UniProtKB/TrEMBL annotation:
Residues 74-95 are annotated as: Disordered. This is Transposase IS66. Residues 466-505 form the Transposase IS66 C-terminal domain. It comes from Candidatus Scalindua japonica. PANTHER family: BLL1576 PROTEIN. Pfam families: DDE_Tnp_IS66, DDE_Tnp_IS66_C, LZ_Tnp_IS66, zf-IS66. It comes from the Bacteria. Residues 36-102 form the Transposase TnpC homeodomain domain.
Length: 519
């Protein structure tokens, strides 16, 4: 039986009230549809479009909108002065590469001129080609001579000579060169261990397995690299400017956790003009307690993104937290790409202002900190005031759009006090890219090697990346630096010598170049 709706009140007031209610429902539904379309646009951009945040400020929306606030500037003519265009040319190969002279001459019968006279050599033309000799495996046979007493009545046991220098990993077949090659292939070049084993087997006929290589990487981290990383941790105590960030890592076999649960690698990097130190730390948690433990005893400037887990560390009286303008720009960039035309236009204005801020600040980038601080106070601070005024004028409209643009305005409002700290010190940066730059190899490598098999493997991964990224930050080539470490570290440990001489900032890059030429 169908329900019958009985309308008893046909008054004008009641009809108008019902119309207003329907209009509100339609407006709410239209707004919800807009937000859903925005999410679809964002997913499409994230899946198929370029991830670059670059944009041309002269580019305007193809279709106008009554909410658009930017006016199109009239076209102007620019006269470009004439200039001489440089011709292209190949670079001469570096002088340190060995040369192999290959001579090309005429045949004997071609050395006769058409007039009957002989041709005389008057010079030569030289052209260059690069050549490469693939990695060459060899087997080092360590012969340790044994001696016994010549007196037949002597009962002293035989004496065996000790290997010198000591093996980096006793009771394994790994030499310093192999450990450096495997370590740099994975942690500098991003290759997974099964692919490295496949390259060694199919290309060179060496029967490595990924299990063996993983065991070597874990033992190498625990026995050789860990003392260096511990010394780097102690050296971090004297720095008063740090960047910190974290990224995910999947660990398959970890006690009390499933393979689907996310684990994390935390990254701390020294900032300013201090000695570059990059330290990675593995933890199964992203809780703020992990950050508090890593930053225990730290005082000074701490640069982070907007993650609330850093709040406890940043709230200490001797810590000043900085925000990240790169994260602000990224949120406006997402809104520019995925929002409705009106919201996208406001987001575009925000990105133009942020680009102006970066441009002004970079003008005195190479100047001493004191001079850069004065410049920031006199010039850059006015740009911050301009951005603040723009936020105040547009935030009501931005919040009415909702969605991604509203998120961008909420983020910049919440972070504003941290985003303006950089003008107080010439060493400080506008963003946290210093940490993201060193954590990116983990993110890109993770797409290839996917996961860590065990907790020991995850901790070894953090240890290896700490040393490799610190070496890179100090201008060292990872393979030759790792080779030096695995060659000399066993002697330092045997003799109980301080390992400071092997820290990346104490190793001369020219020394590594000589090592490369020697081999």
């Amino acid at each position: 039986m169908e329900a019958v709706v009985e309308i008893t009140d046909f008054s004008i007031e009641n009809v108008l009230a019902q119309n207003d209610e329907l209009r509100c429902k339609l407006e709410s539904r239209d707004h919800q549809i807009m937000l859903l379309e925005e999410k679809i646009n964002y997913l499409l951009y994230h899946r198929f479009s370029s991830k670059s945040e670059r944009f041309d400020k002269r580019q305007q929306l193809l279709f106008g909108n009554e909410d658009a606030a930017c006016e199109v500037e009239p076209a102007t003519e620019t006269k470009v002065p004439e200039h001489t265009r440089k011709t292209g040319g190949r670079r001469v190969p570096p002088q340190h590469l060995p040369r192999v002279r290959v001579e090309h001459d005429l045949l004997e019968e071609e050395k006769q001129c058409s007039c009957g006279s002989c041709l005389n050599r008057i010079g030569e033309e030289v052209s260059f080609q690069y050549d490469v000799i693939p990695a060459r495996f060899q087997v080092i046979e360590n012969i340790k001579f044994k001696y016994s007493c010549s007196n037949s009545k002597c009962k002293q046991p035989p004496i065996t000579a000790q290997q010198s220098p000591p093996a980096p990993l006793p009771r394994t077949q790994a030499s310093p060169g192999v450990l450096a090659w495997v370590g740099s292939s994975k942690f500098a070049d991003g290759l997974p261990l099964n692919r490295i084993a496949s390259i060694a087997g199919k290309r060179f006929g060496v029967p490595f397995t990924s299990t063996t290589l993983a065991d070597w990487m874990i033992k190498g981290a625990e026995q050789i690299i860990s003392p260096l990383v511990a010394t780097m941790e102690n050296a971090l105590d004297g720095h008063d400017y740090l960047h910190i960030d974290e990224t995910t890592l999947q660990v398959l076999s970890e006690e009390g956790r499933t393979a689907k649960q996310k684990s994390y690698i935390w990254c701390r990097v020294t900032g300013g003009n201090d000695t570059p130190i990059v330290l990675m730390h593995y933890s199964p948690s992203r809780a703020g307690a992990v950050a508090s433990k890593l930053l225990e005893g730290f005082s000074g400037f701490l640069q982070t993104d907007g993650y609330a887990g850093y709040g406890a560390s940043a709230s200490r009286p001797n810590v000043i937290q900085l925000g990240c303008w790169a994260h602000v720009r990224r949120k406006f960039d997402v809104a520019r790409k995925a929002s409705s035309p009106g919201a996208a236009n406001i987001a575009r204005q925000g990105m133009e202002l942020i680009r102006e801020l970066y441009y002004l600040d970079n003008q005195e980038k190479e100047k001493p900190p004191d001079q850069r601080k004065r410049y920031r106070q006199e010039v850059v601070k006015s740009c911050l005031d301009k951005i603040r005024s723009w936020i105040n004028r547009n935030q009501v409209q931005a919040f009415s759009y909702g969605g991604l643009l509203s998120n961008a305005f909420t983020y910049i409002n919440n972070q504003w006090s941290k985003l303006t700290v950089f003008v107080e010190d010439g060493r400080l940066q506008l963003d946290n890219n210093n940490a993201e730059r060193h954590i990116r190899p983990i993110a890109t490598g993770r797409k290839v090697w996917l996961f860590a098999q065990s907790e020991a493997g995850a901790r070894a991964t953090a240890t290896w990346y700490s040393l490799v990224e610190t070496a890179r930050a100090n201008g060292l080539e990872p393979y030759w630096y790792l080779r030096k470490v695995f060659e000399e570290m066993p002697m330092y440990l045997r003799d109980r010598k301080p390992v400071n001489d092997l820290l990346p900032w104490n190793v001369d890059s020219k020394e590594l170049e000589q090592l490369a030429r020697r081999d």
